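user: At home tonight, take the chain set out below, taking as long as you need, and be ready to discuss the fold:
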Amino acid sequence: MNISTRQLRAFLAAVDHQNFTRAAAKIGLSQPAFSALIKSLEEELGAQLFVRNTRNIELSSFGKLFEAFARRSLFETDTALQHLQDYAAGRTGKVHVAALPSVAASWLPPVFRQFRSEFPGVTIALRDGMSQECVELLSNGEIDFAIATVDHYAAKLERQLLWRDRLHLVCPADHPLARQRKRLTLAQIARHPIIGFVSHSSVRHNVDAAFGRHALNIVLEVEHLATASMMVEQGVGVTLVPSLTLYQFQRPGLAIRDIEHNDIHREVFILTRKNKTLSRPAGAMRDMIVGHVARLGASA
């Protein structure tokens, strides 16, 4: 059986108006064309839908049964089409993002606020984690885009540099390094116990590469910034963290110091899958993030 939505709309127009001429005018057909459309529907169904008289029409017994089916079918079709149109236009849907915790806590809140005002019908899913986790989620197709540092395992991803994030030393406010007036050297830092981050973190990779021949005295490895902050404040050691994370360490008991000839940095990228087109909302969010970071860089 092959019944079209055009036939169903014509049938329901006839039911509502109880007259073929008025129903035909309602859906923009001539009366003969409308009558032919109803006839083709009756032939497809193998049953008469209307009882005709000289002035009006009435539903047959079969027509009354068919009316419920027709209204339900058109409602479901129209609802589905509206959902598809809303999704295509970016009015509904979901954007999946993964980002470094420092990025999630610093850049994303104002961007998400702007996004929610412009796309109120779109929901957001955020995964904050280490760079490798973000990249794996993107490579597996579980998210739309990621904000992370990358190395050799990002070969199948498109990347755009967002930020070069320099590292800083954090120590207790009464620590000898806090009293140094000049910028600290790598050799000075290496003499002190270091609270390092776990080996798979982007910060640890940068620190190890930058210190090179200077052997670091790593006395503790942690994964979270809040843990490092409290350990430093209690005098367990000093630590090195990116500028994006300094908000976690801005407390009276801590001192933040610059590093001499500071080429210790990590590059933060926005990552997408190659040959994968973002949905309109995901593309809009990506552009908002790029714009937000550009403004931060211009004001720095």
User: Anything to note?
Assistant: Residues 61-88 form the longest helix (28 residues). The mean pLDDT is 89.
